[in-house]
Sequence to fold (488 residues):
Amino acid sequence: MALFTLCLVFLQCLVAITGYPKDFNGKTNFVVLLMDDMGWGDLGVYGEPNRETPNMDQMAAEGVLLPDFYSANPLCSPSRASLLSGRLPIRNGFYTTNMRGRNAYTPQDIMGGIPDYEILLPEILKEHGYRSKIIGKWHLGQQPQYLPHNHGFDEFFGAPNCHFGPYNNKNTPNVPVYKDANMEGIEFIEAQTQKSEPFFLYWAADATHGPMYASKPFLGKSARGLYGDAVIELDYGVGQILSTLKRLGIAEQTLVFFSSDNGAATYAKLEGGSNGPFLCGKETTFEGGMREPTIAWWPGNIPPGKVRFTDLGWEYFVMVLHHFMEHPNHEKRYCINFNACVFVHRPIFYYRGDLLMAVRVGNYKAHLWTWANSLEEFQKGTDFCPGQNVQNMTVRQQEDHSQQPLLFNLAKDYGEKYQIKPNSAEYKSVIPKITAAVKEHLDHLKKGEPQLNYCDDAVMNWAPPGCKEIGQCLPIPPSNKQLCYWPH
Ligand SMILES: *[C@@H]1O[C@H](CO)[C@@H](O)[C@H](O)[C@H]1NC(C)=O
Ligand SMILES: [Ca+2]
Fold:
């Protein structure tokens, strides 16, 4: 997300020199297309064999592919909190301390949410005259104080939580859909263009998160089943948004960034997506859990059809984002000089809850802790690493390797299969750099107050705004605050 802050500042300099005909007050518009549980291997351009994503593939042909872009967490809520705050979950509070190394999110009974002290991207943009809209899944807390309007968004069309059921059930209320304007994404873009007011559209579609869904015209279209139908419909949506930008003649003033919030849900087996050549998936800190199918599109500003190595240095993009994500001070997220920010190499930290599981420095990744999922869950049929078994990695209990991390070279071994031997010269030369990066990180780490520790039935969506008008409010049960249980 820092990219956008960064480009905002960079663009302002550029605009001062060149100027725009239709100028949005000299600002660049931002569109983030965030997929839910879509894997690295789900796009044709990333090698999906059925080749069912022509619009996403075209976006990549016109933009740049970022094959080693990471989410900040292998699960929805913390990943999204990082995307919008530019800070790791351990800092913005989107983690739990109920048990060591457990993933947590914001189900309907969660008490916490995005803290007020976090400055979200739309809040920063508002200061620069932008109007922001979120369409889709919020997932940063559902109590009124946590909703998008209180955190910088001007418009919200979507749901505060995941859309999974049960539905029409009085014991668990349905997840409400908020709609405060008669616009969808395209109408929002059109209206903003007419006003020449800069905009940020956060398009957080959740159709590829279980239970999957697709609209009638897309049902049965994919060789992959319902998951593929959902991907095809999203691909269509991406095409619509990009062609709208072209039609309005504002493509060069709009940076579009496509990615996903976490790896594909391998536990869903044939009903989930694909993480391509990577190990395991969603919920894990292996590559399959956090490496995302990412494309940046900005005609006239990003050279088309590139992968990683470009004259703009986009291959350092990941590092840049993480550089900002893990900065303790908001002020430091602003970059005054594009090159100075882009050419800073920063490590990538893989967290599971409160536990630093792994770190990537350059092409090397060291696992300090390893865990797939518990034996108990595995015996119930949940497997985050189906068909994959790497010794000491895909293990059924949390294993501590912090004294002698398991080291892999991701450039050669992106599947994390071949551990570099601890007595090798390579290991001995790399590990000190990793150790230094971890020490630096921990020395500067100021943990946020954990937001995902407590659950209470009383905070569920029993009586969301608007329920009175349609006579659908449910009685709110008495408060029953307790520690949430996180099995993964
Ligand atoms: C790796 O796993 C094997 C078999 O479980 C075990 O004997 C060995 O100690 C483990 N190695 C490390 C470094 O943990
Ligand atoms: Ca997700």
Summary: Residues 36-37, 76, 209, 261-262 surround calcium ion (ligand 2) (CB under 6 Å). The CA atoms of residues 102 and 488 lie 5 Å apart. DSSP finds twelve helices and 19 strands in the chain.
